[in-house]
């Protein structure tokens, strides 16, 4: 089973927007055992879209398109597909009801533009978009499948995951491709590669390993392919068990696990709470924690102390400590963690102080120098990191590392 | 003059890596007045590469490829192109010298792999890669130009900017393509479309408008094409001036401006400071503010008050106010803003309280209900928003809307 992806939009073609949709779709198709032959991006022009469809259908069984389904005049995918598949546009009552519900919180009547979003080709299956007004469309023509989805990523992602992939799996008998991803924090890629070298070399031919590094997190994906799903699954489980015991407690989860969710689950289970005192991370740790639904169960809040005045005035770090050791020091970050835990009356606390850059570095404390401290009632652990020169990256790395230190503290408590 | 971009690599096709190269190349070509017709990504397979070349040369004058030029066995672009253009690979002494210099800090002799990097087709112009060992290649065949560049972004970027674009400009007399993007916060796409309908319909044929919405922000891009650069620029300026006066103070910037940077610049200019009290946004506003280098000049910090205990204990909101009006209310968010401004001793304050979801909504206050308040010494402005059901999106929208309310408050002060 083969596929092609076509992303539609002038903004991609002129380079204003990076096409992230096709990577998401390609990953999803691959994991389902559907080979991707090509990815094409075309502008919002009728001939460009139909030209790409004509080329794609020569080699691919399934063609997935995104983009060009908005309510404004520059979006022409729907009308182009209606012409290509010789459809009539008809008002779809279910979609109209859905759109009315979507905009029910807005004042006034439904606009003509929104009404038009409910007019859809009469010879395709409609895929309802739970998060927006642009519906997905599934056409079939001379043995080929053509699927058109909105370009807004979270709308498209939900439809791929919840509608398209399940429907394709039900329709075709696909070869068994199984992935298992081991999630690690706190270990660099090159150190990990040395550590697991022997294990990697001993992998059976049906399994492949990929390193997927991102700031603060390393994902090791084991992929297996075979006829027997059971056999592939068994082999992956055996090998991943070996790998996990090699790596130890730097493994924080599997597959789609998210570090901040893992930490959240540990706290919910123990009915414990956490507070954060952030300097260099500027709110990023709190943002990660509260990105998890239900985090109000265990997260009481934070103090962002971006100026020393707040470190002393609100967090009670003594002026002498800052004077003697500098704001980026073990002493300051320890005081921040110990004090926020008391002020917010929580079981755990996390604190950061570092030089995010691009300025503020010195030869002794270059940009990227970051102190992180985690504290419970009877343990206070501080650690220094060198996180590199790029501001955005070192803020993210510091935040991820903080959550990982917290995870380990909770587990060892 | 038309072009196509072909990015080559299995990692793109399986979705492991997001193709950022083509956006960079597309932007560069566009700014030089070369239209991009299509972007294609293909795997490291001979037939996929030659297939894409055969399709591209039918319509495009210039074809730019990236990727597949590394020293390892899976990289086959060079050998494929050599075959496609009936070349012989010959050792290029200049490139060999360059590679020797590049690796002179490494111990040992030049490896066979590196030697092979200096073997290049004999019927192309070689473009030296100042940052790596993979050379660029410029072929010409039956009136079409084919350029192959390495996939490593910073190597490729330098070659596009320093070698390819200047060479193309010298070779062809190119038309002018100019873009201007107007950045707006606080107005929905459909409302904006109605508001500027007459203006849009009156645009001269040389100009095109595109709507580029993202959570909390709407970008309107005007693109102009013509022979005379001066004429296009003038027309865009005239039309964008009209558009801006139509929209008013919801416009926060142009082109690559970022809202949090715009707010930062206003504060730096006025030598003023800000503090934040966040409930539902959980740190996102602080994170956006501190993502800007130099934000310590105007940002003192925040209190994240995720539990009512912190709203009363640290932010001094009275228990009665919470009891009588609920935590998500105008009264509470006003008290949060007024109090954080005093506690942190700043010129401005921002506060949020809302129901981020997915749970916690009621019929009177559904998920997405969010109160935002901004305060200065003599003004306190609170506003209620309905930001929809998706947690991540409504947190982001609330944060962007907060920054926009702050921007307006600063401007009106």
Question: Which key phrases capture this entry?
Answer:
Molybdenum Cofactor Biosythetic Enzyme, Chain A, homodimer, Alpha-Beta Plaits, 3 domains, alpha/beta, five-stranded mixed sheet, globular, 16 helices, Maf protein, 413 residues, 17 strands, six-stranded mixed sheet
Task: Give an overview of the whole structure.
The structure is a homodimer of 413-residue chains. Chain A is built from 16 helices and 17 strands. With 413 residues, the first copy, chain A, is of the alpha/beta class. In chain A, strands 2-1-3-8-7-6 form a 6-stranded mixed beta sheet, with helices on both faces. In chain A, strands 14-13-15-16-17 form a 5-stranded mixed beta sheet, with helices on both faces. A 4-stranded antiparallel beta sheet of chain A has the order 10-11-9-12. Chain A is globular, with a radius of gyration of 26 Å. In chain A, 45% of the residues are buried. The mean pLDDT of chain A is 94. Chains A and B meet through helix 1, helix 2, strand 2, helix 3 and helix 12 of A and helix 2, strand 2, helix 3, helix 8 and strand 10 of B.
Quick one: how many beta strands of chain A? 17
Helix content of chain A: 40-55%
Task: Return residue spans of chain A where pLDDT drops below 50 for at least 5 consecutive residues.
Answer: none
Estimated structural class of chain A = alpha/beta
Question: Which architecture of the largest domain in chain A per CATH?
Answer: 3-Layer(aba) Sandwich
């Amino acid at each position: 089973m083969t596929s092609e992806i076509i992303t539609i939009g002038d903004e991609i073609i002129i380079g204003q927007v990076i096409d992230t949709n096709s990577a998401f779709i390609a990953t999803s198709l691959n994991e389902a055992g559907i080979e991707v032959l090509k990815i094409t991006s075309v502008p919002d022009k009728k001939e460009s879209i139909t030209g790409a469809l004509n080329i794609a259908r020569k080699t691919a069984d399934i063609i997935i398109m995104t983009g060009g389904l908005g309510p404004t005049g520059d979006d022409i995918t729907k009308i182009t597909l209606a012409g290509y598949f010789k459809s009539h546009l008809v008002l779809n009552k279910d979609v109209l009801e859905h759109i009315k519900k979507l905009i029910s919180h807005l004042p006034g009547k439904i606009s003509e533009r929104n009404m038009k979003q409910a007019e859809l080709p009469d010879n395709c299956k409609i895929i309802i978009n739970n998060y927006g007004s642009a519906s997905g469309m599934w056409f079939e023509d001379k043995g080929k499948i053509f699927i058109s989805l909105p370009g807004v990523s979270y709308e498209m992602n939900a439809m791929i995951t919840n509608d398209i992939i399940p429907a394709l799996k039900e329709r075709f008998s696909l070869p068994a491709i199984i992935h298992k991803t081991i999630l690690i924090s706190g270990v660099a890629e090159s150190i990990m590669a040395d550590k697991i070298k022997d294990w990697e070399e001993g992998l059976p031919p049906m399994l492949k390993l990929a390193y997927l590094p991102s700031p603060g997190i390393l994902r090791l994906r084991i992929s297996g392919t075979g006829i027997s799903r059971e056999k592939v699954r068994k082999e992956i489980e055996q090998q991943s068990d070996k790998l996990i015991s090699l790596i130890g407690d730097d493994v924080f989860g599997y597959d789609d696990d998210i570090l901040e969710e893992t930490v959240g689950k540990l706290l919910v289970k123990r009915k414990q709470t956490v507070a954060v005192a952030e300097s260099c991370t500027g709110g990023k740790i709190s943002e990660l924690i509260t990105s998890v639904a239900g985090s109000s169960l265990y997260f009481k809040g934070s103090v962002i102390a971006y100026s020393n005045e707040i470190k002393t005035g609100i967090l009670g770090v003594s002026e002498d400590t800052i004077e003697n050791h500098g704001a980026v020091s073990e002493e300051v970050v320890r005081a921040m963690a110990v004090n926020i835990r008391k002020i917010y009356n929580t079981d755990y606390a996390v604190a950061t102080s570092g030089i995010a850059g691009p300025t503020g570095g010195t030869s002794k404390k270059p940009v990227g120098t970051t102190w992180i401290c985690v504290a419970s009632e009877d343990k206070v652990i501080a650690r220094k990191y060198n996180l590199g020169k790029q501001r955005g990256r070192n803020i993210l790395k510091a935040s991820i590392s903080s959550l990982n230190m917290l995870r380990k503290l909770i587990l060892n408590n």
